[in-house]
Amino acid sequence: MNITLITVGKIKEKYLKDAIDEYSKRLKRYCKLDIIELADEKTPDNASEKEELQIKEKEGQLILKSIKENMYVIALDLKGNMISSEDFSNLIGDLGVKGESQLCFVIGGSLGLSKDVIQRANYKLCFSKMTFPHQLFRVMLLEQIYRAYRIMKGEPYHK
Predict the structure, then answer these.
(1) What is the pLDDT of residues 132-153, one digit of tens each?
(2) What's the rounded Cα separation, in Å, for the pair 80 and 84?
(3) Is 130 part of any known ligand binding site?
(4) What are the backbone dihedrals phi and psi of residue 129, each rounded to the nearest 5 degrees, phi first?
(5) CATH number at residue 94
(6) How many domains does the chain have?
(7) Which residues contact 146 (CB under 8 A, 6 or more apart)?
(8) What pTM did the predictor assign?
(9) Which family does the similarity line name (predicted)?
(10) What is residue 158's predicted lDDT score, i.e. its pLDDT?
(11) What is the pLDDT of residue 83?
């Protein structure tokens, strides 16, 4: 299976880069992983609702340009489905069985995802109602993808 992460924003912190590298290395046993980092738009401190919408739309257009037509898109969205690690593993496994070999996970910038990206998504996933920094969330998503494969294979890790 090919998994692509499309993310808005660069990782600056070394400890996060190290964690991303570690999970990327672990995932090589299970899938081909590609991470696409897109530049985030700078949001002024006192941005109006209209300015925030324009920023999300601009980032959204960059995201949509990075999504290939044959990709099954899973958008990380606060209004998405909250599922367990086991259900996440089943979701990935079932998609593979159905011939969906191009999975694409989308993590938006600090303002979230545009409505166009949400509409393009085949599935909307929510890890928590809490808000996380998108840089940290990349590590969390990679860990859950790794955990999903370990569960699928019946390998020790998941407790």
Answers:
(1) 888 899 999 999 999 999 999 9
(2) 13
(3) yes
(4) -80, -10
(5) 3.40.1280.10
(6) 1
(7) 23, 26, 27, 30, 157
(8) 0.94
(9) Belongs to the RNA methyltransferase RlmH family.
(10) 58
(11) 97
